């Protein structure tokens, strides 16, 4: 039996958007009720994708400015980033393009980013907005617009509390940025691109599984098979 593939997945985003809750909900099937700012933490989970076992290393990071220098230390070796914002926070939505994309492009250029909108259960909660008059809901259309703006291949909306996922949008094609390398034969280049495509599908499939505990992998609005 071949060894399992290891994928390092790092979550980033503003503080209090629900990054830690997302990971805890997936790994322990529980929802933490108390907010404790994260400095650094990691989790591990084994996921079966297309019959193969993938060891998923989940790295949680702090979004507060106090950790701007420490946080990038966890980016090294990342295979994919979960860039999270809150669906009830316009500031966290705007910071995706203002703060997080520039940071990730600087420290981890070329690494795929999956955009995730959290706290879906509160977006349709009228009482929440009565109690928090300054809160602004972010629509699915706005999330998709942001996905296109930052060039993320996938966008997901979810609730860690209810373990609900209602929207997952994936581009029909994906080109992975990579450093230039010595030229090879056309056959080898084609094989490498095919391998990258399959690896990307594994990443997106695994990341989607984070949002629905113990649920089957989702086909979303696009066919994953069409991308392989």
UniProtKB/TrEMBL annotation:
Keyword Nucleotide-binding: yes
Family named by the database record: Belongs to the small GTPase superfamily. Rho family.
Source taxonomy: Eukaryota, Viridiplantae, Streptophyta, Embryophyta, Tracheophyta
Positions in coiled-coil regions: none
Biological-process GO terms, alphabetical: small GTPase-mediated signal transduction
InterPro entries xrefs: P-loop_NTPase (IPR027417), Small_GTP-bd (IPR005225), Small_GTPase (IPR001806), Small_GTPase_Rho (IPR003578)
One Pfam family of this chain: Ras
Entry protein name: Rac-like GTP-binding protein RHO1 isoform X1
Keywords from the named record: GTP-binding, Lipoprotein, Nucleotide-binding
PANTHER family the record matches: RHO FAMILY GTPASE
GO MF term list: GTP binding; GTPase activity
